[in-house]
Structure formats: C-alpha cells, structure tokens
Amino acid sequence: MALFSQTAGQDDVVHPGLARSFHERLAPLYAQAPERLRYREFPLSGHMMRPEDWKEAIRDAADWLVRFLAMPRAPHG
C-alpha cells in the first residue's frame, strides 16, 4: 500500500509531529519499497496553509494518486 501524508509545520490544530512519528515508525516496513511511503511537511504554514503551499500540496497529492492509484488501461485492438 502506498501512503502519502502532508502536514503544515506550524499547525496548532493538527500537530504535525504525530504524522511525522507515524511515518518514522512505518519506514522499516517500507524498506523493500521506500518510494511507496512519503511524508511532506510545509514548515512555514499553519492550519490554514499559505496559498502557495496549498497549491503545491494539491498538485503533489494528485501526482501521488495518479502514480499509485491509476487504473491500468485495457490494451487496444
């Protein structure tokens, strides 16, 4: 299973340390496929993320979904 979490580094509602430590504990379990585990923190954003960080977070999430959840296409013919 692929897992990607994104947090705001200065979030005072949902503390980023919980997601960060969760990913650290999972890292050994992903040793055979480390590309399937990703944690991203936006250090300058609070709970209401800065617009530029929000745009980047959405783009990264979409890229991640395309990469790991895309349905294979049926062959033509």
The rounded Rg comes to 15 Å
Number of strands: 2
- How many strands, which pairing sense, and closed or not: the largest β-sheet? 2 strands, parallel
Structural class: alpha+beta
- Choose one word for the global shape: flat
Proportion of residues in β-strands: 15-25%
User: Strand order, biggest sheet?
Assistant: 1-2
Write down the overall mean pLDDT: 92
Query: What is the helix fraction of residues, given as a range?
Result: 25-40%
List keywords for this structure.
77 residues; alpha+beta; two-stranded parallel sheet; 16% strand
Description:
- The chain is an alpha+beta fold.
- The chain has one domain (3-69).
- It has two helices and two strands.
- The chain has helices at residues 16-26, 51-69; strands at 3-8, 37-42.
- It has a two-stranded parallel ribbon.
- The longest helix is centred in the C-terminal third of the chain and has 19 residues, at 51-69.
How do the helices and strands line up, and which of them pair or pack?
Elements: E1 3-8, H1 16-26, E2 37-42, H2 51-69
Parallel strand pairs: 1-2
Short description:
The chain is of the alpha+beta class. The chain has 2 helices and 2 strands; from the N terminus they run βαβα.
